[in-house]
Specification:
The chain is mostly helical and 66 residues long. It contains 3 helices and no strands. The radius of gyration is 15 Å and the shape is elongated. It comes from Sphaerisporangium melleum.
Length: 66
C-alpha cells in the first residue's frame, strides 16, 4: 500500500505546485488554471515519477499473483 500512497501524494503535490506557479505568473481564470495545471502536472509526473509508478505497478502485479 505504501508505494501507492507515495505516488498519489507525489502527483497531488506536483499538481499543487503547478497550480501555485501558474497562479503566481498570472493565470487567474479558475477553469484554465485547473485545466493547464492538470495537463502540465500530468506530463511532468510521467517524466519525474517513473520510479514511483514502477513501484506501484510491481505492487499490483505481486497482488494479482499471490
Amino acid at each position: 500500500m505504501r508505494p501507492f500512497l507515495v505516488y498519489t501524494a507525489s502527483r497531488l503535490g506536483l499538481f499543487a505546485v503547478t497550480l501555485g506557479v501558474l497562479y503566481l505568473i498570472g493565470l487567474h481564470d479558475v477553469f484554465w488554471l485547473l485545466v493547464t495545471s492538470f495537463v502540465i502536472s500530468g506530463i511532468a509526473s510521467y517524466v519525474l515519477l517513473s520510479k514511483q509508478r514502477d513501484a506501484v505497478s510491481e505492487q499490483i502485479s505481486k497482488g494479482r499473483r499471490g
